[in-house]
Known about the structure:
7-stranded mixed beta sheet; Rossmann fold; 6-stranded parallel beta sheet; alpha/beta
Amino acid sequence: xxNYILKPLLRKSPxxxxxxxxxxxxxxxxxxxxxxxxxxxxSLPLFAALRNRxxxxxxxxxxxxxxxxxxxxxxxxxxxRIILFDKxxxxxxxxxxxxxxxxxxxxxxxxxxxxxxxxxxxxxxxxGAKARVGVRSTDKKFNKYEYLLxxxxxxxxxKNSVHQIYRNLEIGELIGCKMTSEQLNKVKLDLSVEENQxxxxxxxxxxxxxxxxxxxxPGAGKPLNRWKTENFNELIEKxxxxxxxxxxxTSGPMxxxxxxxxxxxxxxxxxxxxxxxxxxxxIDAAIISKLDLYITNDTGxxxxxxxxxxxxxxxxxxxxxxxxxxxxxxxxxxxxxxxNINDISIDFVYNKAISILKKTxxx
Length: 363
Protein backbone atom coordinates (compact mmCIF):
# COMPACT_ATOMS: atom_id res chain seq x y z
CA UNK A 1 0.00 0.00 0.00
CA UNK A 2 2.79 2.43 0.95
CA ASN A 3 4.50 1.66 -2.35
CA TYR A 4 1.25 2.44 -4.22
CA ILE A 5 0.75 5.77 -2.39
CA LEU A 6 4.33 7.01 -2.64
CA LYS A 7 5.34 6.03 -6.16
CA PRO A 8 3.40 8.81 -7.92
CA LEU A 9 5.14 11.33 -5.62
CA LEU A 10 8.62 10.07 -6.31
CA ARG A 11 9.59 11.42 -9.68
CA LYS A 12 13.28 11.38 -10.50
CA SER A 13 14.95 14.33 -8.83
CA PRO A 14 16.47 16.97 -11.12
CA UNK A 15 18.98 17.56 -8.32
CA UNK A 16 22.20 15.70 -9.16
CA UNK A 17 25.07 16.31 -6.68
CA UNK A 18 27.64 15.42 -9.35
CA UNK A 19 26.67 18.60 -11.19
CA UNK A 20 26.55 20.86 -8.14
CA UNK A 21 29.53 22.76 -6.68
CA UNK A 22 30.57 21.25 -3.34
CA UNK A 23 29.86 24.50 -1.48
CA UNK A 24 26.18 24.26 -2.48
CA UNK A 25 25.78 21.03 -0.50
CA UNK A 26 25.04 22.20 3.03
CA UNK A 27 23.67 19.03 4.67
CA UNK A 28 24.23 15.33 4.08
CA UNK A 29 22.53 12.37 5.80
CA UNK A 30 23.92 8.82 6.04
CA UNK A 31 21.54 6.10 7.27
CA UNK A 32 23.34 3.16 8.92
CA UNK A 33 20.93 2.20 11.70
CA UNK A 34 21.79 -1.50 12.02
CA UNK A 35 23.94 -3.05 14.76
CA UNK A 36 26.59 -4.81 12.66
CA UNK A 37 29.93 -3.26 13.60
CA UNK A 38 31.75 -4.73 10.62
CA UNK A 39 29.25 -3.26 8.19
CA UNK A 40 29.65 0.16 9.80
CA UNK A 41 33.45 0.12 9.89
CA UNK A 42 33.69 -1.07 6.28
CA SER A 43 31.80 2.14 5.45
CA LEU A 44 34.56 4.36 6.86
CA PRO A 45 36.18 4.95 3.45
CA LEU A 46 32.78 6.03 2.08
CA PHE A 47 32.42 8.49 4.95
CA ALA A 48 35.91 9.81 4.21
CA ALA A 49 35.08 10.11 0.49
CA LEU A 50 31.96 12.14 1.32
CA ARG A 51 34.00 14.43 3.57
CA ASN A 52 36.69 14.84 0.88
CA ARG A 53 34.13 15.70 -1.80
CA UNK A 54 32.05 17.98 0.44
CA UNK A 55 34.55 19.32 3.02
CA UNK A 56 32.32 22.13 4.33
CA UNK A 57 29.05 20.19 4.47
CA UNK A 58 27.33 19.29 7.73
CA UNK A 59 27.26 15.48 7.72
CA UNK A 60 24.83 13.54 9.92
CA UNK A 61 25.06 9.81 10.66
CA UNK A 62 22.16 7.74 11.94
CA UNK A 63 23.51 4.84 13.99
CA UNK A 64 22.47 2.11 16.41
CA UNK A 65 23.57 2.31 20.05
CA UNK A 66 26.59 0.02 19.61
CA UNK A 67 27.93 1.83 16.56
CA UNK A 68 27.08 5.21 18.08
CA UNK A 69 29.74 4.44 20.72
CA UNK A 70 32.45 3.99 18.07
CA UNK A 71 32.11 7.47 16.61
CA UNK A 72 30.70 9.56 19.46
CA UNK A 73 34.00 11.26 20.25
CA UNK A 74 35.65 14.61 19.49
CA UNK A 75 38.24 12.63 17.47
CA UNK A 76 35.58 11.73 14.91
CA UNK A 77 36.38 13.73 11.76
CA UNK A 78 33.72 12.35 9.44
CA UNK A 79 30.46 13.51 11.06
CA UNK A 80 29.20 16.74 12.54
CA ARG A 81 26.25 15.07 14.20
CA ILE A 82 25.32 11.50 15.12
CA ILE A 83 21.68 10.65 15.76
CA LEU A 84 20.98 7.55 17.84
CA PHE A 85 18.21 5.47 16.27
CA ASP A 86 16.07 4.55 19.26
CA LYS A 87 12.86 2.72 18.40
CA UNK A 88 12.12 1.51 21.93
CA UNK A 89 8.86 3.46 22.29
CA UNK A 90 6.51 5.76 20.35
CA UNK A 91 8.02 8.71 22.23
CA UNK A 92 11.61 7.89 21.25
CA UNK A 93 10.54 7.39 17.63
CA UNK A 94 8.78 10.75 17.68
CA UNK A 95 11.88 12.42 19.15
CA UNK A 96 14.05 10.72 16.56
CA UNK A 97 11.91 12.05 13.69
CA UNK A 98 12.00 15.58 15.14
CA UNK A 99 15.78 15.42 15.42
CA UNK A 100 16.03 14.01 11.90
CA UNK A 101 14.03 16.83 10.38
CA UNK A 102 16.05 19.63 12.00
CA UNK A 103 18.16 19.88 8.83
CA UNK A 104 17.22 20.35 5.20
CA UNK A 105 19.31 17.67 3.51
CA UNK A 106 20.52 18.01 -0.05
CA UNK A 107 21.79 14.40 0.02
CA UNK A 108 20.57 11.33 1.89
CA UNK A 109 22.44 8.07 1.33
CA UNK A 110 21.55 4.49 2.25
CA UNK A 111 24.67 2.35 1.68
CA UNK A 112 23.01 -1.08 1.35
CA UNK A 113 25.81 -3.58 0.77
CA UNK A 114 24.52 -6.47 2.89
CA UNK A 115 20.72 -6.32 2.79
CA UNK A 116 17.92 -3.95 1.84
CA UNK A 117 16.24 -2.39 4.86
CA UNK A 118 12.77 -0.93 4.58
CA UNK A 119 13.39 1.09 7.76
CA UNK A 120 16.59 2.67 6.42
CA UNK A 121 14.98 3.68 3.16
CA UNK A 122 11.95 5.13 4.96
CA UNK A 123 14.17 7.15 7.31
CA UNK A 124 16.04 8.51 4.31
CA UNK A 125 12.79 9.45 2.59
CA UNK A 126 11.25 11.03 5.70
CA UNK A 127 14.37 13.21 6.06
CA GLY A 128 13.26 15.12 2.95
CA ALA A 129 16.64 14.78 1.23
CA LYS A 130 16.58 16.09 -2.34
CA ALA A 131 18.94 13.40 -3.65
CA ARG A 132 18.21 9.99 -2.12
CA VAL A 133 21.09 7.71 -3.02
CA GLY A 134 21.40 3.94 -2.86
CA VAL A 135 21.25 0.56 -4.55
CA ARG A 136 18.66 -0.52 -7.11
CA SER A 137 20.02 -4.04 -7.43
CA THR A 138 23.06 -6.14 -6.69
CA ASP A 139 23.89 -9.33 -8.58
CA LYS A 140 20.36 -9.23 -10.00
CA LYS A 141 18.80 -9.11 -6.52
CA PHE A 142 16.28 -6.31 -6.78
CA ASN A 143 15.79 -3.79 -3.97
CA LYS A 144 12.03 -3.60 -3.53
CA TYR A 145 12.44 -0.27 -1.72
CA GLU A 146 14.32 1.37 -4.57
CA TYR A 147 11.26 3.48 -5.37
CA LEU A 148 12.23 5.58 -2.31
CA LEU A 149 15.52 6.47 -4.04
CA UNK A 150 16.03 8.84 -6.96
CA UNK A 151 19.75 8.22 -7.58
CA UNK A 152 20.52 4.50 -7.67
CA UNK A 153 22.81 1.96 -9.25
CA UNK A 154 23.04 -1.68 -10.27
CA UNK A 155 26.10 -3.61 -9.09
CA UNK A 156 27.70 -7.06 -9.50
CA UNK A 157 29.60 -7.29 -6.24
CA UNK A 158 29.34 -11.02 -5.55
CA LYS A 159 30.10 -11.96 -9.14
CA ASN A 160 33.23 -9.77 -9.08
CA SER A 161 34.30 -10.70 -5.51
CA VAL A 162 34.26 -7.07 -4.38
CA HIS A 163 35.36 -6.19 -0.84
CA GLN A 164 32.82 -4.39 1.36
CA ILE A 165 35.00 -1.28 1.38
CA TYR A 166 34.75 -0.94 -2.40
CA ARG A 167 31.05 -1.79 -2.42
CA ASN A 168 30.46 1.24 -0.22
CA LEU A 169 32.76 3.39 -2.32
CA GLU A 170 30.93 2.43 -5.51
CA ILE A 171 27.71 3.75 -3.97
CA GLY A 172 29.50 7.01 -3.22
CA GLU A 173 30.64 7.24 -6.83
CA LEU A 174 26.98 7.64 -7.84
CA ILE A 175 27.27 11.22 -6.54
CA GLY A 176 30.86 11.87 -7.57
CA CYS A 177 32.64 10.75 -4.38
CA LYS A 178 35.81 8.92 -5.38
CA MET A 179 38.84 7.82 -3.41
CA THR A 180 42.38 7.10 -4.53
CA SER A 181 44.50 4.29 -3.05
CA GLU A 182 46.61 6.93 -1.31
CA GLN A 183 43.53 8.49 0.28
CA LEU A 184 42.20 5.08 1.33
CA ASN A 185 45.43 4.28 3.14
CA LYS A 186 44.89 7.37 5.31
CA VAL A 187 41.43 6.33 6.51
CA LYS A 188 41.74 5.41 10.19
CA LEU A 189 39.79 5.10 13.40
CA ASP A 190 41.28 7.93 15.46
CA LEU A 191 41.85 7.72 19.22
CA SER A 192 42.04 10.54 21.76
CA VAL A 193 45.13 11.47 23.75
CA GLU A 194 43.40 10.12 26.86
CA GLU A 195 42.53 6.80 25.19
CA ASN A 196 46.09 6.37 23.95
CA GLN A 197 47.45 7.20 27.40
CA UNK A 198 45.14 4.64 29.03
CA UNK A 199 46.44 1.95 26.68
CA UNK A 200 50.05 2.90 27.40
CA UNK A 201 49.42 2.75 31.13
CA UNK A 202 47.57 -0.56 30.74
CA UNK A 203 50.67 -2.18 29.26
CA UNK A 204 53.02 -0.66 31.82
CA UNK A 205 50.83 -1.68 34.75
CA UNK A 206 50.32 -5.25 33.60
CA UNK A 207 53.64 -6.16 32.00
CA UNK A 208 56.91 -5.02 33.55
CA UNK A 209 58.97 -5.74 30.44
CA UNK A 210 59.48 -4.66 26.84
CA UNK A 211 58.50 -8.01 25.34
CA UNK A 212 56.25 -8.07 22.32
CA UNK A 213 52.51 -8.03 23.03
CA UNK A 214 50.22 -10.39 21.14
CA UNK A 215 46.45 -10.14 21.46
CA UNK A 216 43.87 -12.84 20.80
CA UNK A 217 40.11 -12.70 20.37
CA PRO A 218 38.64 -16.23 20.66
CA GLY A 219 35.04 -15.04 20.68
CA ALA A 220 32.57 -14.16 17.92
CA GLY A 221 28.86 -13.48 17.85
CA LYS A 222 28.29 -16.31 15.37
CA PRO A 223 29.42 -19.76 16.61
CA LEU A 224 30.44 -20.83 13.09
CA ASN A 225 32.95 -17.95 13.05
CA ARG A 226 34.77 -19.25 16.15
CA TRP A 227 38.04 -21.12 15.83
CA LYS A 228 38.07 -23.73 18.61
CA THR A 229 39.35 -22.52 21.97
CA GLU A 230 41.67 -25.55 21.99
CA ASN A 231 43.29 -24.11 18.86
CA PHE A 232 43.71 -20.71 20.46
CA ASN A 233 45.14 -22.33 23.60
CA GLU A 234 47.80 -24.27 21.68
CA LEU A 235 48.67 -21.28 19.50
CA ILE A 236 49.01 -18.97 22.52
CA GLU A 237 51.21 -21.48 24.31
CA LYS A 238 53.43 -21.96 21.26
CA UNK A 239 53.91 -18.23 20.64
CA UNK A 240 54.50 -17.51 24.31
CA UNK A 241 56.95 -20.38 24.67
CA UNK A 242 59.01 -19.38 21.63
CA UNK A 243 58.82 -15.58 21.92
CA UNK A 244 58.20 -14.97 25.63
CA UNK A 245 55.41 -12.66 24.50
CA UNK A 246 52.95 -10.76 26.64
CA UNK A 247 49.48 -12.26 26.17
CA UNK A 248 46.33 -10.13 26.05
CA UNK A 249 42.89 -11.70 25.53
CA THR A 250 40.11 -9.38 24.40
CA SER A 251 36.59 -10.28 25.44
CA GLY A 252 33.24 -8.79 24.57
CA PRO A 253 29.98 -8.93 26.56
CA MET A 254 28.95 -12.23 24.90
CA UNK A 255 32.35 -13.94 25.17
CA UNK A 256 32.43 -14.98 28.85
CA UNK A 257 31.76 -18.66 28.25
CA UNK A 258 34.11 -18.81 25.27
CA UNK A 259 36.93 -17.23 27.29
CA UNK A 260 36.48 -19.49 30.33
CA UNK A 261 38.40 -22.53 28.95
CA UNK A 262 41.15 -20.20 27.69
CA UNK A 263 41.57 -18.77 31.20
CA UNK A 264 41.69 -22.25 32.70
CA UNK A 265 44.25 -23.52 30.21
CA UNK A 266 46.60 -20.56 30.51
CA UNK A 267 46.41 -20.62 34.30
CA UNK A 268 47.14 -24.34 34.34
CA UNK A 269 50.15 -23.77 32.08
CA UNK A 270 51.29 -20.88 34.30
CA UNK A 271 51.26 -18.46 31.37
CA UNK A 272 50.90 -14.84 32.46
CA UNK A 273 48.01 -13.18 30.63
CA UNK A 274 45.50 -10.34 30.89
CA UNK A 275 41.85 -10.44 29.84
CA UNK A 276 40.18 -7.13 28.92
CA UNK A 277 36.63 -7.23 30.22
CA UNK A 278 33.79 -4.77 30.71
CA UNK A 279 35.73 -1.95 29.10
CA UNK A 280 34.08 0.75 27.01
CA UNK A 281 34.43 -0.10 23.33
CA UNK A 282 36.92 2.64 22.57
CA ILE A 283 39.13 1.69 25.53
CA ASP A 284 39.40 -1.84 24.13
CA ALA A 285 40.19 -0.25 20.77
CA ALA A 286 43.02 1.74 22.35
CA ILE A 287 44.48 -1.44 23.89
CA ILE A 288 44.25 -3.22 20.53
CA SER A 289 46.09 -0.31 18.90
CA LYS A 290 49.16 -0.96 21.08
CA LEU A 291 49.49 -4.65 20.19
CA ASP A 292 52.38 -5.92 18.10
CA LEU A 293 50.05 -8.54 16.61
CA TYR A 294 46.36 -9.36 16.97
CA ILE A 295 44.92 -12.78 16.07
CA THR A 296 41.14 -12.86 15.92
CA ASN A 297 38.07 -14.51 14.53
CA ASP A 298 35.87 -12.77 11.99
CA THR A 299 34.07 -10.39 14.35
CA GLY A 300 33.78 -6.72 15.39
CA UNK A 301 37.22 -6.32 17.05
CA UNK A 302 38.83 -7.56 13.82
CA UNK A 303 37.37 -4.58 11.98
CA UNK A 304 38.46 -2.22 14.75
CA UNK A 305 42.03 -3.55 14.49
CA UNK A 306 41.88 -3.15 10.71
CA UNK A 307 41.17 0.59 10.96
CA UNK A 308 43.68 1.07 13.77
CA UNK A 309 46.38 -0.44 11.49
CA UNK A 310 47.28 -3.02 14.12
CA UNK A 311 49.27 -5.93 12.60
CA UNK A 312 46.55 -8.50 12.21
CA UNK A 313 45.65 -12.10 11.36
CA UNK A 314 41.92 -12.72 10.84
CA UNK A 315 40.48 -16.24 10.67
CA UNK A 316 37.61 -17.00 8.27
CA UNK A 317 35.41 -20.07 7.90
CA UNK A 318 31.97 -19.73 6.28
CA UNK A 319 32.23 -16.01 5.45
CA UNK A 320 34.43 -14.67 2.68
CA UNK A 321 37.74 -13.12 3.67
CA UNK A 322 37.97 -11.38 0.29
CA UNK A 323 34.77 -9.54 1.20
CA UNK A 324 35.24 -8.79 4.92
CA UNK A 325 38.93 -9.36 5.71
CA UNK A 326 41.60 -6.80 6.62
CA UNK A 327 43.17 -4.90 3.75
CA UNK A 328 46.01 -2.76 5.05
CA UNK A 329 49.75 -3.31 5.42
CA UNK A 330 50.90 -6.12 7.76
CA UNK A 331 47.37 -7.48 7.92
CA UNK A 332 46.25 -10.81 6.49
CA UNK A 333 43.24 -13.06 6.54
CA UNK A 334 43.35 -16.84 6.50
CA UNK A 335 40.47 -18.51 4.71
CA UNK A 336 39.64 -22.06 5.73
CA UNK A 337 39.98 -24.52 2.81
CA UNK A 338 36.41 -25.56 3.69
CA UNK A 339 33.52 -23.68 5.27
CA ASN A 340 34.67 -25.09 8.65
CA ILE A 341 36.93 -22.56 10.35
CA ASN A 342 38.56 -25.37 12.35
CA ASP A 343 40.14 -26.71 9.18
CA ILE A 344 42.66 -23.88 9.55
CA SER A 345 45.72 -25.49 11.15
CA ILE A 346 47.49 -24.14 14.22
CA ASP A 347 50.87 -24.41 12.51
CA PHE A 348 49.66 -22.38 9.54
CA VAL A 349 48.50 -19.53 11.79
CA TYR A 350 51.71 -19.73 13.82
CA ASN A 351 53.87 -19.42 10.70
CA LYS A 352 51.84 -16.43 9.48
CA ALA A 353 52.28 -14.80 12.90
CA ILE A 354 56.05 -15.29 12.81
CA SER A 355 56.16 -13.91 9.26
CA ILE A 356 54.31 -10.70 10.22
CA LEU A 357 56.41 -10.19 13.36
CA LYS A 358 59.58 -10.55 11.31
CA LYS A 359 58.28 -8.18 8.66
CA THR A 360 57.46 -5.56 11.28
CA UNK A 361 60.87 -6.17 12.90
CA UNK A 362 59.41 -7.18 16.25
CA UNK A 363 61.50 -10.37 16.28
